[in-house]
Design brief:
about 170 residues, Rossmann fold
Length: about 170
């Protein structure tokens, strides 16, 4: 498992250029589970510690975005509460949205960190400047990421990435 402490400093040098962090949701902000009550309402657990990391990035001037293949009112509400303005839900082609965000903010790939955990994230992970995944990501994702966190999705992963970015700026 790759970890910044165990590999060359090249990925850490890449994180110093980051001006925007874009996150998937399921398996990143959450543990990938969804609770469904008897009326079909979905409940998802989010970490307030991860949320504080997002707040600190925003305060530091780092742009934040979310691209999720799931369309969920719960996610929309949580991302709104975190003051994330670039929220794209129900997206099948994440690379298309990634490129749209990149253009909107006049950024290069090298200035974007992307965090994903599953197969649909691979095209963006391959294009961005600093790719990250949680330790419980799919093996195909781990094989291409610059950084594999020691934390799982929904269990401190987002805060770990936020801390890494903050320590580099």
């Amino acid at each position: 498992m790759k970890n910044i402490k165990e590999i060359s400093l090249e990925p850490f040098e890449a994180i110093k250029k980051v001006k925007m962090a874009i996150f998937d949701v399921d398996g990143i902000f959450t543990d990938g589970c969804v609770y469904v009550d008897s009326k079909g309402r979905e409940l998802i657990k989010f970490s307030r510690i991860d949320g504080k990391g997002i707040e600190l990035l925003i305060e530091a001037g780092i742009h934040i975005g979310v691209i999720s293949s799931e369309a969920s009112d719960v996610v929309k509400f949580r991302m709104g509460k975190l003051n994330i303005s670039e929220v794209y839900l129900g997206i099948k082609n994440k690379l298309e949205i990634y490129n749209r965000i990149k253009e909107k903010f006049h950024l290069t790939d090298k200035e974007i960190c992307y965090c994903g955990d599953d197969l649909q994230d691979i095209p963006v992970l391959r294009q961005c400047g600093f790719s990250c995944c949680p330790k419980n990501a799919q093996d195909e994702v781990k094989n291409i990421c610059d950084y594999i966190s020691e934390y799982e999705g929904g269990r401190g992963f987002v805060r770990d990435i936020c801390n890494k970015i903050l320590s580099a700026i």
